[in-house]
Amino acid sequence: MDKIVSLCKRRGFVFPSSEIYGGLGSTYDYGHYGVLLKQNVKAEWWRAMLQERDDIVALDAAILMHPRTWEASGHLAGFTDPLIDCRTCKLRFRADHMEQSACGRKPSKHPGEIPDCDLTDPRDFNLMFQTTLGPVKDAGATVYLRPETAQGIFVNFKNYLQFSRKKPPFGIAQIGKSFRNEITPGNFVFRTREFEQMEMEYFVPPDEAPKWFEHWLEQRMNWYTELGLRPDHLRLRAHAPDELSHYSSATSDVEYLFPIGWSELEGVANRGNFDLTQHAEFSGQKLEYVDTASGERYVPHVIEPAAGADRAALAFLVDAYDEDEVGGEARTVLRLHPRLAPVKVAVLPLVKKDGQPEVAAELHRELRVRMSAEYDEGGAIGRRYRRQDEIGTPFGVTVDHQTLEDRTVTVRERDSLVQERVPIAELADELERRLRALWSSPKLAGV
Ligand code: GAP
What we know:
- By secondary structure, this protein is an alpha+beta fold.
- It has 13 helices and 23 strands.
- Strands 3-9-10-16-13-12-11 form a 7-stranded mixed sheet.
- Helix 2 (32-51) crosses helix 9.
- The protein starts with a helix and ends in an 11-residue tail after the last helix.
- It binds glycyl-adenosine-5'-phosphate.
């Protein structure tokens, strides 16, 4: 993880937030390449949810919602972690994580293990951030930053039945920021207090819920493997009954083998009719599907694949990170799926003279309207390749003296390091063909 964190800072993927003020615990800013990577992760999610299916529609709901939402959803009463304070070292621990926590006085010991420790009884701590709507801070003005995007979908269910011409089974998908005042954030962007979720609520006839639960488990596993995560680093883990959220009758986590061990990447839950029933009760509105032909009416059940955009981006980075040797020199390379790579092609004149920069710059202008492309003419060619390898650029196009004679360039592949000459006239089509091709991690073959 340290290597990933350092590469992310060095190459402008992710920085600690407000760093000049010493940072703010577990908040991060995405730099240029991090923005492009996360953008690509989200675009692939939208592609899988919207473009490749016709039973899902999109939503972008507000972060601030009516406070009754959180009463109905159970978050106000139940979205809590049990907390223990130490009166001696003033540190705060999750009561269910004492075995993984370090004592403030003696970090080799767990809290409570030395006589100095003076621990409080566990108290429930609500993870929702509160803020005030309007200038007056009275009780009625308290609102919450949403802790999950899902509720924005449930409260819009009626709107979608009216306008979308969909009937169960159908889904509503949303990507957006969520906020949780996590007690123990950490492990880089794995667990932060402000993060982006990619959630889809799939509304189904009640008796079809188990079938669709299986369907979404399979779909979501395929999404990660098709985007290059190594299958042997990915698994499904069903929640034990005492682990289930208050709304769920079945949940399985997609887990990835992060450097911190197997950890949740995404949860797929069968939420039953809990949310629609609760919102119907608290709002007084009918939230049910009525089949106009048969007159049949029911409250749909919901299958929810809930992923984190930051956590997914981290998994793709971890899986892609590799070190090898090129020409006797150590190289760090991100073997990202080409569709996720922040930059698809780098255009490099071999030397900064003899008309090569002009041809390369012209080529770059042509390519960048079709794909994310960079032009770089500064420094030795080897160093320029190395920089592109570190940000995961799958193709390097080099303009050299031969280009000026026969209008061909060399295309260098990041993973195989194979270099081929391609006519400029065919270059954009050829690169697009390669970007669309099936791809699997060369790390699988032990390259
Ligand atoms: N609506 C269901 C829900 O929110 P969750 O398992 O709490 O379920 C779904 O969250 C996903 O959101 C997680 O699998 C993870 O990828 C991401 N996530 C949750 N909390 C996070 C945090 N503190 N930091 C980063 N990502 C988080």
